[in-house]
Amino acid sequence: MTAISVIAAKYGVSAVIGALTGNEGLGGLGSELMGALMESEDRIAEQLDGISRKLDRVLAQRYSTALGAGQRTLLDASTAPDAQTRVAELSRARDLFLEAGAAALSPLQLAVAERYVALCYIALGRREAAGTALKAMDRAAAEAMLDAAAEAGPPAYERARKQLGWSGRVGSRSRRDDLLEDQAGDIILAALREAELAEELFRESRTLAQGMGLPLVPLPHQEELPPEPDGEDDPLRTAKLQLVLRPAAPGPVRYGPITVTWRKVLIQPIAWPVPHGRTSASMSEVRQYLESCSISPDQVDGDALRRLRRRMYQTAVAWLEVDVTIKVEPAFTRNRIIGLASRSTEPSPAAGWVDFHLRGLAAGRSELTIKSSIPFSLQGKEMPDESYTPDLISIPEGLTNEIALSVDNTLIFPSA
User: Fold this and answer.
1) Which pTM was predicted?
2) 363 close to 146: Cβ distance less than 8 angstroms
C-alpha cells in the first residue's frame, strides 16, 4: 500500500485531506503524512529505477532531479512558518512536479509525477485542478498497466535475447538457455511489479477522490490471470497478464479512466438441419443463409460461395448481438486495440480470454461503441471464410459463450 492509503486507513480519508490542506488541528498528522510519503518515495524511486533498467527504459536525469526537488519542497511546505510561505512552497513544488511529468519517459513515471501534482493542488485548496490531475494520474497508471502486461507476455523472451546478446564467451547451448530463462524471468517480474505499482496508484487516486467528495462508482470485482508458461518445452513463451473486471453492481463498470457500459449481449443459435446423407449445401441454401445474415449473395465472390457450400453443414452457427460502449477520460495517448473476447476453457497458453472481434481506439479518441450483429461458430470450428464480410468471424476451439470487452487483451470487462 502507498503512504497515503496507509494513513487514510489509520486516520480516515477526511483527516488526510485536512492534513494536506493545512488544517491547524491536524498539524501532527500532516508531519506524519509527509514523513511517510518521503519514506515510501525512496522505495518507489528504487523500484522505478529497477523496472526501468530491466525493461530498457531510461530514467531521465531531468525527471529524477525535478521529482526529488519537488519532494523536498513539498516537505518544506509542511513545516512552513506561515500561510504565505506555505502557498509559495506548494506552488514551487507543483511546478517542479509538472516539470518532472514533462520529462517522464514512461507512463508509470508520469503517473507518479501527476500524483504529486494532485497532492499540491489539494494542499492549495484547488479542488477542480486536483480532480484534473487525478484523472491524468489514472490515465497514466492505466497505460502503465497495459504496457506492463505486454512486457510480461511473449515479448519478455525476445527482450531477454537482445539484452544478453550472444557471444563466443557464453558457452554451451544449455548454459545459454539457462541464462535466457533467468533474464526473461527477471523481465517478467519487473513488468509484474510495474503493474502492481499502477494498481497501487489507482487505489490512492480513489482514496483522494473520495476524500474530496468526487463522484465514484462501485469498484469492480477483480481477478488477476497471471502469465502462464507455454508448455514445458518452452517456458519463456508466456501467455500475457490479464485483469478481469466484473461488474459489482448494475450499470457501467469503471476502472481508472475507463468506463464500459453494456446495453445488449444476446446469443441466438441458428438451426441449420443437416439433410440426410449430405455434407454440403445447395446454392439456394447458401443464398438463404447469407440473406438471413443481411448479406447480399451478389457481393460474395464465387470461391467464397463454394467454400461456404462445402462447410455450412459442418459448423454450428449462432448470431451474436452486441451493444457496448467504452469511454476513456482523458483519452489514451497511444492507439489501443478494443476487442470482443470469449473465455477459454483449454488448459493451454490461450487460457484466459481470447479476442475474436477487433476494433481500434485511436490515440486521443475518448469513446468507441461496438453495436453489431455477428455470426460466429458455437462449437469453435472454422467459419467458411472471412473474406466476404468483415463481421464474419471464427472463435478458436475451447471457448465459452461468455462475452467480454477487452482493452489490448489485458483489461477484460465481462458483460453482466
Assistant:
1) 0.74
2) no
Q: How many CB atoms lie within 10 A of CB 342?
A: 25
Burial class (CB in 10 A: 0-12, 13-18, 19+), 372: middle
Ramachandran sector of residue 405 (left: φ over 0; alpha: ψ -120 to 50; beta: rest) = beta
**CA distances in angstroms from 322 to 264, 290, 337, 397, listed in the order given:** 5, 20, 17, 21
Could you read off the pLDDT tens digit of each residue along the chain, which spans 416 residues? 466 666 665 556 566 666 666 555 444 555 666 666 666 665 666 666 666 665 655 567 888 899 889 988 887 887 788 889 989 999 999 999 999 999 998 898 899 999 989 989 988 889 899 999 999 999 999 999 998 887 776 677 677 777 777 544 555 666 667 777 777 777 778 888 888 889 888 888 888 888 888 888 788 999 887 766 544 444 444 456 789 999 888 889 999 999 999 998 887 665 555 555 566 777 887 777 777 666 677 766 676 677 667 666 555 556 678 899 999 999 999 999 999 888 765 554 445 788 878 889 999 999 999 988 776 554 433 333 333 233 333 434 444 567 899 999 899 999 97
CA–CA dist 109, 54 (Å, integer): 15
Q: How distant is the alpha carbon of residue 196 from its chain centre?
A: 12
C-alpha grid cell, residue 214 = 468526487
**In 3-state terms, what secondary structure has residue 43?**
helix
Whole-angstrom Cα distance, residue 189 to residue 167?
26
Inter-CA distances, 18 with 30, 73, 199, 349, Å: 8, 19, 25, 49
Helix (H, G, I), strand (E, B) or coil at 82: coil
